[in-house]
Each structure stands twice: as structure tokens, then as C-alpha cells.
Write a structure and sequence with these properties.
heterodimer; A: alpha/beta; 6-stranded mixed sheet; B: mainly alpha
């Protein structure tokens, strides 16, 4: 019998249908994955299984059974009996989901505490046992710590432990690994796989097909509030029927056709070192003796997990931050060694694309004014500037219609295109891209990557491409540098680094990405 | 999700639109009264008619007459000129001074910032009204003293908000983006830092305008501002307080005018604030 069964679920907000006739069932020991992009209604669907739909939503379903009991008319009290003990929910951001003022152990056993009158000592033992079950090292120490003292991966494990505390039959995991580094993500997925094997039913909600592929028995693809395709995982991945599923699968970045160098070294960093002052007079070395070379017309990919110093390196290359040691040479001339006033005239030669383009736009300005600010830095005659703005927008796949928009009126992908257009306005030699697609949906991500690749091949642009995602790096890079704890642990031509990795960290990264 | 929630919060905080329309209407009427008082009354506010002193409100004198037989309605209408001028001038002066001090404090090296910030701290430690009184004691009474005193007393708040706002904007992604494009620092300050600082300050000033009018009325009530027989709300109130038992209308109507002005500016100001919050989040 299914743990939970839903048919024809509909959720409306102010008359707008956001979930439209969704049906599925999950059996014990089975994992169903719901995959969709932001706004597809997947999270709302998951929340409705726990009676947790936000205020203002109207829910109607033809059937909603939990353990065979009709749950459609459940009161809040009855839902409380279900949550935690029959169905548990774990969310994406463990730091937000755990109370920062309570010790991890107490958070883990909260679901038991509210149901049974048990002594503190017994609960403490249970907390340690639960943490041990989800493979948290030193569980008795961790139980006494606060959430902020744990790493992201351990926090996510603690959150899973708290979900399991009251012995639920179904675990609903909403983007359980999205906020985590690739190697940590792989370990959390292993843990979920173990739990499934022990008979737990899993409902996995994710935007990322490649994450759920290894874990799910069945996959349901959601688009605009409806399930467009549902099949067992192997079938869906090997022979997708619906065009949207095919588009999602195609959006997984592919192989790189190597770019042809158009010249010598255009950007060279030598022994860059930067440290920051940490708490209690300690210093933290963010970038440690990093040397890089970028050849004209090619892409240097820099891959590393969060905290590896990638973004600091990007700021050092842009010379918006001063290195403690080492220097950067741009097109054979001094760059980081210049005084800011002298550098200003040459800033157009190296441009930056960031993860969150919204914050890089003055919120008061329209797209036209944003581009104009960059265009007026060049020697384009005044009367040709308007035409140049349109030309730039068209080169990134937008139109003149976007000129009047303000940044917040654009979608994430459109914003990133405007950011790219602004950078191109200055005709730079080098483009530094710092996680340019990490905030975008997979299909949009693929479009932006294709755009950058196309620009490089048409204009001979040189790029430094920084990402935590090895799949993206592989699709974009001719040379790859792997960073860890501020150091480059391995670097070389993409084929060598990916084909025959030397450093154990690279090997682990490759294994966790499943390339 | 979080976007929907903040949007809902912003909506919840917003006063009803009916109230906003009424408040805006009050402000329009006040502005008209200040600019063309003849539109509302044909009676001279200074004209005395001893025979008809302390007359209760009637058709001829809707707000009654005072102890010298002057028409209270006419005095309240003409009083708008004085009160609104003082409130407006004081607010603009405070805003400009605060903007300059705050911007310098936010952009200057740490040593200068620290000195300015501590001076602002000291000024903020005094209640605004007390500080204004202190300044009038130095400057001597009169309308222009009131303007300067109120402006100086409310300036520290504007300076502090400006400083914080400048610090935030200065470290923002778009100021860094301008630097990366190669925009010189001074251009960047004028094009990005100052305009983005101004928004919240203008909203604050709307609310501050009401407070300034209330302060002006208070100081005039104490006999430190507008000189009799000129009509000013605080002054009329003060003249009427001796007759509260026999002729309540002399004090009550100018009092209502002050109250209505302060409420109207606050309602409109808060609406602007809510709109800003909704737009930036």
C-alpha cells in the first residue's frame, strides 16, 4: 500500500492555478522525484502533503490518502499528528530550518519531545543515536553544539536526523543538496539511498535532473503546475517522451570543442596571495600563492567548492582588491601594480560577470542608461550610442524592446544577458565570469553558456570562468585549475585534468559529479 | 516564496488607500490656503471688531471670533502661510545640512567620520525641542530663528541616515560595477551614491515636515516665534488659552489645523515609505 497517494491536486492563489491536476503515489522503500524549474509548483505540491500550504491558497484534490486514511478534511490538530511522525519534511537551507539558539541535539529530538513525556537524559541519548544513524562524526559532541558551528553538510545531516526522529514512513526532501558543495552533495545522496534501502519512502523535489537520476526509482517532470511526464527513472532518462523533458536533459552541459588560441598570454597572475583578518587576531589565507596564465581566445576554468578562494581570486584579477603578494599582468603590461587613477583608463580591457547581476545594476536606471554608462566610456560618437546599445542587446539575444525596462522587471536570464552586454560594450580582451549561471534554471543556464561560448568563437574573447560546478566547467574550459583552501591543487589542459586527475581532491570532485 | 511574503508584509503595513487620498486632499487644501488664502475667506485676519468679540461660531464667522473680534477662521487660513513656511523651510534646511554632513561622514577617512559621528551623537542625545529652545535662547526670538533652530535640531537624524545609506550604497555591487567599467569616483558619487541616498531621505522629510510644523507651533505658543498680531497657529492657540472656559473655539480650531497637518503628512509619508520598501525588496 502506498504511504501517500494524491490524485488531481489543484492549488490556486487568487484565482491563478499554480498546481494543476497533479497525481502520484509513493510506496515504502520507493523514491519518487519531482523535477521542475523555479515556479513549476513542485515545492507547493510537496508542502500540500503535510497540510502546509501558505495562507491564501485554495487546495482541492480528488484523493489524498496518508496510510490509506482520507486526509482531505484533516483539521490542524490531525495534521500535527501526521507531521513528523508519518511524513517529515526537510528543506533546502538547514541553517534557516534549525533554530540558531538551540543545541543541535535538542533540535533533532524536538519531534519526539512534543509527543512523548521523556526525560532529558533519554532524549539526549536518542539525539546522539539519531546523529550516529545519519553518519555524523562525533555525534555526542555535535549534539551539544549550535547549528552555526556545523558545516553545511553536517547541518543537512542533522536536519535529516530531526526529520527521522519520530520514525516517519515518508521523507519529503525539498532540494536537499542544492546549497551544498558537490562532494558533500554526493555523500548526502548516499545517506538518502541508505535510508531508502531500509524501507523509508522518499519524495525528492529538485530542479536538477542529474542529482535525482542516481537515487530516484521514478521521476515526474513538472512544468507550469502540471506533471508533463512520469516514468521509471531509467526509461525517462534514456527515452524521454515529452519535449520539455528532452529540453531539460539537453540542458545538462555537454562536451567542449576546444577553442583555438588567437595569440599569446593575455592575462598572467604570479604568486597571488591574499589573507583576511579573522576572529581573535587570526588570519585566514583566502588565496595562497596562486599563479595562472590565460591564453588569448581561450577559456581558463577555475573550479572549487565554497570557501576555496575563487571569488577572492576573481576580485584580485579585476584589481578591485589588492593582493598581499604577487601581481597580475594584463596584455603584457602591468595591471595590479598600477595606481587606481592610472588603471582607470585601462579598466575596459578586463570585465566581470557576477553570479547576481541584479546587485550590479543601479536599481533606478533603465537598461538603456545602464548600457549608456558603459558605452560613454568608449570612443563611440554620441549620435551612434543609441544604435550601439541596440546592437549590444541583439548580440546577447535581447531586443530594443528591453531598453526601457528596469533590472527588477527582467528575468534572471535576461539580467545576466544585460550584464554580459554591458561588459561587451567596452570591447574587453578578457571576461572574468564568477559563477555566472549558478543562480539560473538549468534550461536558462544552457542558453547563457551557449551565448558565452558563441561570443568567444565569434570575437576571440578570452575568459576566466569560475564555478563550483564541474559539469559547467567541463563544458566551457580549455584549461582547468582546481582550487582548494586558497591553493591551486591541480591545473592543466581540460582533457588531462578531467581524463587523468592527479590530485585526490580532483578525483573526488569528478566522482561526485558523475562525469 | 520569500518574495511573496515580504510583498504581503509591505502590503499589510500600508495604510488604507482611502486614508491616503483624504490625507493628500488635506495637504492640497493646506497648500492652497498658504498660497491663495483669499480663495477661502474674504475677511482680513487682522481686522478687529471689538463690539463682536468672543462671538461663538456662526454662519458669518464659522470658527467664531477672538477677544479682539477678529475672525478665527480667517486667522487659521492665513496662519497656514506662516506655519507651512516655517515647517517647509526648516525641513529643507535640515535635509540639505544633513545630506552634506552625512555624505562627508560616509565618504571621508575614518578619523573625520568618527569626529562628525560623535558630534551627531551628542546632538541626538538632546530632545529636539530642547535643542531648538537652546538655539533660540542664543539667536533671539523671531520667525527666522525658529526656522534655523528647528532645522539644526532635526538635522542630526538626517545626517545619520544619510551616512548609513552612503556606506551601504558605496559598498554596493553597482558602485563596484561602475568602478570596473572605469567610471571616475566623483562621477560615481554624483550619479549613483547621492541619488540612491536621497530616496529614503525624501520620505523621511515628508514625515519630518509634520513634526517641524508641530515644533513651530510649540515655539510660537511660547511666544518665541511669529510676533503678534500676525496669525500663526501656535500663536493663536496661545492667545486663546486664557479664554478656554468661555470661548473654546479660539484655541480648538488652530489646534485642529496643526493636528490635521501632522496626521496628513505622516500618513502620506508612511505610504511613500511602504512603497519604497515594496519596490526595493
Amino acid at each position: 500500500m502506498s504511504v501517500v497517494k494524491v490524485s488531481d491536486l489543484r492549488i490556486e492563489f487568487d484565482g491563478v492555478t499554480v498546481v494543476d491536476g497533479v497525481s502520484f503515489a509513493v510506496a515504502p522503500g520507493e523514491c519518487l522525484a519531482i523535477v521542475g524549474e523555479s515556479g513549476s509548483g513542485k515545492t507547493l505540491t510537496a508542502q500540500s502533503l503535510l497540510g502546509l500550504v501558505p495562507d491564501g491558497a485554495t487546495v482541492s484534490t480528488a484523493e489524498l490518502t496518508i496510510d490509506g486514511v482520507d486526509a482531505r478534511a484533516f483539521s490542524e490538530t490531525q495534521w500535527r499528528g501526521v507531521r513528523g511522525s508519518r511524513i517529515a519534511l526537510i528543506s533546502q537551507d538547514a541553517l534557516v530550518a534549525l533554530d540558531p539558539l538551540r543545541r543541535v541535539g535538542r533540535e533533532v529530538t524536538e519531534a519526539i519531545e512534543v509527543r512523548e513525556r521523556t526525560s532529558r537524559a533519554v532524549l539526549d541519548d536518542r539525539a546522539v543515536a539519531l546523529l550516529a544513524d545519519v553518519a555524523v562524526p562525533e555525534p555526542s559532541l555535535r549534539a551539544r553544539q549550535y547549528p552555526h558551528e556545523l558545516s553545511g553538510g553536517l547541518r543537512q545531516r542533522a536536519l535529516i536526523a530531526s526529520g527521522l526522529a519520530a520514525g516517519p514512513a515518508l521523507l519529503v526532501a525539498d532540494e536537499p543538496t542544492t546549497a551544498l558543495d558537490a562532494t558533500v552533495q554526493a555523500r548526502i545522496l548516499d545517506l538518502l539511498r541508505e535510508l531508502k534501502r531500509s524501507g523509508l519512502a522518499l519524495l525528492l523535489v529538485s530542479h536538477d535532473l542529474s542529482v535525482v537520476a542516481s537515487l530516484a526509482d521514478r521521476i515526474a517532470v513538472m512544468q507550469n503546475g502540471a506533471i508533463v511526464e512520469e516514468a521509471d527513472a531509467a526509461t525517462l532518462l534514456s527515452s524521454p517522451q515529452h519535449p520539455y523533458t528532452r529540453a531539460l536533459l539537453a540542458a545538462v552541459p555537454g562536451e567542449r570543442t576546444p577553442a583555438v588560441p588567437t595569440g599569446g598570454v593575455v592575462l598572467e597572475a604570479t604568486s597571488l596571495t591574499k589573507s583576511y583578518r579573522g576572529p581573535s587576531r587570526s588570519t585566514r589565507v583566502a588565496v595562497d600563492d596562486v599563479s595562472l596564465q590565460l591564453r588569448a581566445g581561450t577559456t581558463l576554468g577555475i573550479v572549487g567548492e565554497s570557501g576555496s578562494g575563487k571569488s577572492t581570486l576573481a576580485r584580485l584579477l579585476m584589481a578591485v582588491e589588492t593582493a598581499d603578494r604577487g601581481d597580475v599582468v594584463l596584455a603584457g603590461e602591468p595591471w595590479s601594480a598600477l595606481r587606481e587613477a592610472a588603471r582607470r583608463g585601462r579598466r575596459h580591457r578586463i570585465q566581470l560577470i557576477e553570479q547576481d547581476p541584479l546587485s550590479s545594476f543601479d536599481p533606478r536606471l533603465s537598461v538603456a542608461r545602464i548600457l549608456a554608462e558603459a558605452i560613454e566610456r568608449t570612443d563611440t560618437p554620441t549620435r551612434e550610442r543609441a544604435a550601439r546599445a541596440v546592437e549590444l542587446l541583439e548580440s546577447v539575444g535581447l531586443t530594443a524592446a528591453h531598453l526601457g525596462r528596469r533590472p527588477h522587471q527582467l528575468s534572471g536570464g535576461q539580467r545576466q544577458r544585460v550584464a554580459i552586454a554591458r561588459a561587451l560594450a567596452l570591447r574587453p580582451d578578457v571576461l572574468v565570469c564568477d559563477e555566472p549561471v549558478s543562480a539560473l534554471d538549468v534550461s536558462v543556464q544552457a542558453q547563457v553558456l551557449a551565448l558565452l561560448d558563441d561570443l568567444q568563437r565569434r570575437t576571440g574573447l578570452s575568459m576566466v570562468f569560475i564555478s563550483h560546478d564541474l559539469a559547467v566547467i567541463r563544458a566551457m574550459s580549455d584549461e582547468i585549475a582546481v582550487m582548494r583552501d586558497g591553493r591551486v591543487v591541480e591545473s592543466g589542459p581540460a582533457a588531462d585534468v578531467l581524463g587523468a586527475p592527479q590530485h585526490p581532491f580532483t578525483v573526488e570532485l569528478l566522482a561526485s559529479t558523475g562525469i | 516564496m520569500s518574495l511573496a511574503i515580504t510583498e504581503r508584509l509591505a502590503r499589510g503595513r500600508r495604510p488604507r488607500s482611502g486614508g491616503v487620498i483624504a490625507a493628500s486632499a488635506v495637504l492640497v487644501v493646506l497648500a492652497l490656503a498658504a498660497v491663495v488664502p483669499r480663495l477661502f475667506t474674504g475677511i482680513d485676519p487682522l481686522e478687529t471688531e471689538i463690539a463682536n468679540a468672543l462671538a461663538a461660531p456662526s454662519l458669518a464667522h464659522p470658527f467664531g471670533t477672538d477677544q479682539s473680534g477678529r475672525d478665527v477662521f480667517s486667522r487659521v487660513v492665513y496662519g497656514a502661510q506662516h506655519s507651512l513656511f516655517i515647517g517647509f523651510a526648516a525641513t529643507i534646511l535640515a535635509l540639505v545640512a544633513g545630506l552634506i554632513v552625512g555624505t562627508i561622514s560616509g565618504l571621508a577617512p575614518r578619523a573625520i567620520d568618527t569626529v562628525l559621528s560623535r558630534i551627531i551623537d551628542v546632538l541626538m542625545a538632546f530632545p529636539e525641542f530642547l535643542l531648538a529652545l537652546l538655539l533660540i535662547a542664543i539667536l533671539g526670538p523671531g520667525e527666522s530663528s525658529i526656522v534655523v533652530a528647528i532645522a539644526a535640531a532635526s538635522m542630526p537624524v538626517y545626517a545619520r541616515v544619510t551616512r548609513v545609506q552612503v556606506l551601504v550604497v558605496r559598498r554596493s555591487g553597482y558602485v563596484r560595477a561602475a568602478r570596473i567599467i572605469g567610471v571616475p569616483p566623483l562621477v560615481s558619487v554624483l550619479r549613483h551614491v547621492v541619488p540612491n541616498t536621497l530616496g529614503p531621505l525624501l520620505v523621511m522629510a515628508t514625515i519630518g515636515f509634520g513634526t517641524a510644523i508641530a515644533s513651530a507651533a510649540g515655539l510660537s505658543f511660547l511666544g518665541l516665534g511669529t510676533t503678534p498680531p500676525e496669525p500663526e497657529w501656535g500663536l493663536i492657540l496661545s492667545e486663546g488659552r486664557n479664554f478656554l472656559g468661555t470661548a473654546w473655539w479660539i484655541a480648538v480650531f488652530p489646534g485642529l489645523a496643526v493636528t490635521a497637518t501632522v496626521i496628513a503628512t505622516t500618513v502620506v509619508g508612511r505610504r511613500l515609505l511602504a512603497r519604497r520598501a515594496g519596490r526595493t525588496s
